Amino acid sequence: MVYVFDDFDSITEAEFQLLLKCAGKDRRVKVLKYKFREDQVLSLVGYHAINYAVGGFPILEYGLYGKPYVSEDFDGAFKHFNMSHCRMCVAVVADDVPVGIDVEEIREFDPGVMKLCFTDFEKQQVMESSHPEDSFYLIWTLKESYIKAIGKGMSFHFLSVEFDCREEVPRCSDKAFQFESFVYKEKYRISCCYKDKN
């Protein structure tokens, strides 16, 4: 299940305070450490979206590289989840297998990032695309979702995995995972990675 929220302007101060009150103490402290209100709202909405997605307020545990997961003692709908946010958009995915998600606003990109993080084949796909910005963020979000699904964070090198996005369903060099990607409101590219259930 994927959940997306981007209507931050609709959250009133009273609603913000209620969401804050309903959050756990650790989350409240984390939210209020952010200097800007936008970041506070992103953190708080993301927290509640995760709880909604997994079916309750779980006890979280953390993997070797810091990826959170739901404790085995939790009796909610899903044990695995992941969250991503960019400016004014939060996306959450939950499932019964390891998952990862990434959301990015489709905009002009830095070619230097592509040189460092994309294989030659991936660069070729972007450069030959009729919509290079979307193609860039398609591959970027797929890579990010994969790295988040495997739980290795930034210790994993971007060039260690390659994507073929010439067909409707993206294909990955790591066959143990499945992917889906879509554009939300013609503004955000969202990609999800799931450990293959088969």
Task: Give structural notes.
This protein has 198 residues and is of the alpha+beta class. It is 36% helix and 26% strand. It is built from six helices and ten strands, in the order E-H-H-H-E-E-E-E-E-H-H-H-E-E-E-E. The strands form four sheets. The protein has a three-stranded antiparallel beta sheet, with helices on one face. Strand 7 (163-164) and strand 8 (171-172) form a beta hairpin. Helix 2 packs antiparallel against helix 3 (37-54) and helix 5 (120-127) runs antiparallel to helix 6. The longest helix is centred in the C-terminal third of the chain and has 19 residues, at 132-150. The protein is globular and about 50 Å long. The model has no long low-confidence stretch (mean pLDDT 91).
List the helices and strands and how they pair.
Elements: E1 2-5, H1 13-22, H2 25-33, H3 37-54, E2 60-62, E3 68-70, E4 80-86, E5 89-95, E6 99-105, H4 111-117, H5 120-127, H6 132-150, E7 163-164, E8 171-172, E9 177-184, E10 188-195
Antiparallel strand pairs: 1-5, 2-3, 4-5, 6-10, 7-8, 9-10
